[in-house]
Write a structure and sequence with these properties.
The chain has 409 residues and is α+β, with helices and mostly antiparallel strands. The chain has three domains: 2-113, RNA polymerase II/Efflux pump adaptor protein, barrel-sandwich hybrid domain (OB fold (Dihydrolipoamide Acetyltransferase, E2P)); 115-156, E3-binding domain (Dihydrolipoamide Transferase), CATH 4.10.320.10; 204-407, Chloramphenicol Acetyltransferase. It has helices at residues 104-110, 119-128, 146-154, 186-201, 214-220, 225-228, 236-250, 296-311, 385-400, 403-407; strands at 2-6, 16-22, 29-30, 34-40, 45-50, 54-59, 66-68, 72-78, 95-96, 204-212, 256-259, 264-267, 273-279, 282-284, 287-288, 325-329, 348-352, 356-362, 365-379. Strands 10, 13, 14, 15, 16, 17, 18 and 19 form an eight-stranded mixed beta sheet that branches. β18 and β19 form a beta hairpin. α2 packs parallel to α3 (146-154).
């Protein structure tokens, strides 16, 4: 029997996506809930599973194509079943069938237990030739992680690497020489639109400062790994987020937004910190909710979880919404100062530069100190320079007296 697999709902207000990967070929035999297509939406990459086993009769989409919800992806020679989709984010997968009742043997095959693994883990497994069906996941709820796949790959004999040929020339040239064109991804288009809107609407002003984190680094390195928790890392970023969250409670105007229709400043009685994460598909900003109610160790654990989920494309779109203030870590890749663009409709963003050792005066003595560069951009329609300065002063003071980060409620 012939069944058409259609693109399911991908999330609230998400009507389309770009095909970034076709995981099967015509003639392939697939098991129930195998991933068949990878689709990139505005902020997420999701793997579309096929909820029934069978043979791929026809592929209706290609890599780079923009497809809409409800559009046919594949035609399968199979029997219809309705197991739970492998990804909770995708909702129910629609199928058009003739209603033929499958045999008991076919039902058993098609209702096989879905493999709990996200798109990134599945991609790495395909690249390394690892069969996910034989893996035991160490992630939450037994979910197979990228680390599980890589660990399994190390147990297999590795083939001898063959040098790759450089990509063939496309023949495209401009007035000065060969060029290569690459279509903007959905994520990059979203980033471009948001940044253009923010830069056009918001009058940006940026303050620069340095925090002496010598004592903070000494204290951070004394915290035993078991206090933080398995898999989590206690980085300086956790202390920065804690300092920002505490300071935003005191300086509410930097935690606000501007309602341009009513010309009102909306003060938020909660602190949700957006944390910019660099991923292979672009900069993604998941939200750390109620950060002001978290300890440094709690933030460190949540930060590790968020970053892992984002880089593995296993997050929900809702995890990117509701931020009140954004923190971006330029220091993770290098660089000291910058002029970050505010994430509209927020009114401020803090960029953290690469901490480095410098010779600094302490009274009349010169000492070796570790300094962390900070760049605070703010919306001058809402935030005055003095208010921004006082906020940044408090952030610096907390970083320079790290005991305050541990004792402040």
């Amino acid at each position: 029997m012939t069944i058409d697999l259609r693109l399911p709902e991908l999330g609230e207000n998400v009507q389309s996506g770009d095909v970034v990967g076709v995981l099967v070929h015509e003639g392939d035999t697939i098991a129930a809930n195998d991933g068949v297509i990878e689709v990139e939406t505005e902020k997420a990459v999701v793997e579309v599973p096929c909820p029934f086993a069978g043979t791929v009769a026809k592929i209706h989409v290609r890599k780079g194509q923009t497809i809409k919800v409800g559009e046919t992806l594949l035609t399968i020679e199979s029997q219809p079943v309705k197991p739970e989709p492998a990804s909770a984010d995708l909702g129910a997968v629609e199928a058009v069938s003739e209603g033929v009742v499958p045999s008991a043997a076919a039902q058993a095959e098609m209702m096989a237990t879905p493999i709990a693994a996200g798109p990134e883990a599945r991609r790495v497994a395909r690249e390394l030739g690892v069969d996910l069906a034989h893996l035991h996941g160490t992630g939450k709820g037994g979910r197979i992680t990228v680390e599980d796949v890589r660990a399994a790959a190390t147990l297999k004999p590795q083939p001898v690497a063959v040098p790759q040929k450089p990509p063939a020339a496309t023949g495209a040239v401009d007035a000065y020489g060969p060029v290569r064109r690459e279509r903007l991804t959905a994520i990059r288009r979203t980033i471009a639109a948001q940044m253009s809107k923010s830069a056009a609407i918001i009058p940006h002003v940026t303050n620069f400062d340095d925090a002496d984190i010598t004592e903070l680094e000494e204290m951070r390195k004394t915290v035993p790994a078991e206090y933080v928790g398995p898999g989590a890392k206690l980085t300086a970023m956790a202390f920065v987020l804690r300092a920002v969250a505490i300071s935003l409670r005191k300086h509410a105007v930097l935690n606000a937004s501007l309602d341009e229709d009513t010309q009102e400043i909306v003060f938020k009685d909660y602190v949700n910190l957006g944390v910019a994460v660099d991923t292979p598909r672009g900069l993604i900003v998941p939200v750390l909710r109620n950060a002001d109610q978290m300890s440094v160790l709690h933030i460190a654990r949540e930060l590790t979880t968020l970053a892992t989920r984002v880089r593995s494309a296993e997050f929900k779109l809702e995890e990117l919404r509701g931020g009140t203030f954004t923190v971006s870590n330029l220091g993770a890749v290098g660089g000291l100062y910058s002029t970050p663009i505010i994430n509209h409709p927020e009114v401020a963003i803090l960029l953290v530069g690469r901490a480095r050792w410098v010779a600094a005066f302490r009274g009349e003595d010169v000492e070796r100190r570790m300094m962390m560069p900070l760049s605070l951009s703010y919306d001058h329609r809402v935030v005055d320079g003095a208010a921004a300065g006082r906020f940044l002063n408090d952030v610096v003071a907390l970083l320079q007296s790290p005991a305050g980060l541990l004792l402040t409620n």
